[in-house]
Amino acid sequence: MADELLIRTEELVKVFPMGRSEVRALNRVSLDFRAGEFAGLVGPSGSGKTTFLNVVGSLDAPTSGSAEVLGRRIEGLSHREAADLRNRSIGFIFQTFNLLPVYTAYENVEFPLLLLRVPAAQRRRMVMDALEWVGLADRSRSRPAQLSGGESQRVAIARAVVKRPPLLLADEPTANLDAENSHHILRTMAALNRELGTTFLFATHDEKVIAYLHRKITLVDGRVERDEPLTPAAGRETGP
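Above: the chain sequence. Below: its structure as tokens.
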């Protein structure tokens, strides 16, 4: 539902031990994100961007404060409950594509549906729909070694959206791509945001990504320095 609150963090703190000292990766971060946003966390390396994604993605627990994601309090989840939340409701895209090299594009995209025990006929429809969304239905039988970097990232996007999660977290998704492929990927994600209503939250320092965002949150030393609306690039309104 549009404008539904998907993420709320309050006074979120994440501390990592480092020898005899500690690093405060997140320092009292309070942020809300609503359904349908196309938002990004920006800032230098070490500013807390990836740590924030890991917490709201239930990959890590906060040291203190709270993170509510899709109605679930992350800090209160067991390992099994956190895995179930990720499997059913959150998609992930990383700068490394993390495709299984022995499997075809189709099989890589199908994998999340196998975990959810989706029936075979329904799986096939969902996988082919996802590959169509990213423009790779004709490469469904190709293995990762036969794909370009841009195509591999599009397969990774298809894998992330195949279960139609309400929330997709993307950590530096264009870091290993050239400018042309980066823009193709970003137009694809913007189209999925519009057509499926998927909420996208990026961690990035790539100006190409920032040009597509509707909202930019700047983190510095684990704190929110700025939170501002943006007018996205004209190319964002163009399909893949």
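The first helix runs from residue 49 to 56.
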